[in-house]
Amino acid sequence: MARSKEFEENEVLEKAMKLFWEQGYEKTSMSDLVEHMGIHRRSLYDTFTDKHTLFLKAMDRFEKRTDARLAAGIKQSKTAKEAIQFIFDYMSIGEEGAPPGCMFVNSAVEMACRDEVVDAKAVGAFEKVEHLLVELISWGQQSGEFSDQYTAEEFAEYLHNALTGIRVMARTSVSKEKLQRIFVMTMHTLEK
């Protein structure tokens, strides 16, 4: 007779996501996962197959979480600049109790050159953010907030590159004030 699961899959996946986000794939052992998730090793394998599959599911969970938070924050923004400021704040400063930086940036730096699936997920997430920036910059150009010296796509590529660098720096001891100054300078490129 099969035993029923003694855990809620979404709760343990959230714990795994945060551990991978904080430590990375290589540094996180199966023992770390079992302990942090609070489940038996057999249950981990039965539910998630292996460490790599669990990691990919954690990346998917991170993406859904990020998408939902960005959509909610942007919806509340009154201007394109305010929406982009929200993206910066969320992606660099983060939220209470969450590891610093971005799981996609961290994973790309650690694994993309040797793991095609991680590379594809990271590139897809980057493209999604860049597309969002194109929409916001277009809004700002149409409303007169931003310059039309370059296309929204060109500005978005530049801004996304800066945001990616800021997300890497957010993992270090660099001050939040310095990250904010870098973002402010970057935003000046959009001004008329």
How are the secondary structure elements laid out?
Elements: H1 9-23, H2 30-37, H3 41-48, H4 51-75, H5 80-93, H6 103-111, H7 116-143, H8 152-169, H9 176-188
Offer a few descriptive terms.
192 residues, mainly alpha, 9 helices, 72% helix, elongated
Notes on the structure:
- This protein is mostly helical.
- The protein has a domain at 59-188: Tetracycline Repressor, domain 2 (Orthogonal Bundle).
- Helices cover 72% and strands 0% of the residues.
- The protein has nine helices and no strands.
- It has helices spanning 9-23, 30-37, 41-48, 51-75, 80-93, 103-111, 116-143, 152-169, 176-188.
- Helix 1 (9-23) packs across helix 4, helix 5 packs antiparallel against helix 7 (116-143) and helix 6 packs across helix 7.
- The chain is elongated, with a radius of gyration of 19 Å.
- 28% of the residues are buried.
- The mean pLDDT is 93.
Summarize the structure.
Helix content is 72%, strand content 0%.
Integer average pLDDT:
93
Please indicate the percent range of residues in DSSP E strands (runs of 2 or more).
under 5%
> In CATH terms, what is the architecture of the domain at 59-188?
Orthogonal Bundle
CATH superfamily of the domain at 59-188: Tetracycline Repressor, domain 2
From N to C, what is the helix and strand string?
Answer: HHHHHHHHH
Number of strands: 0
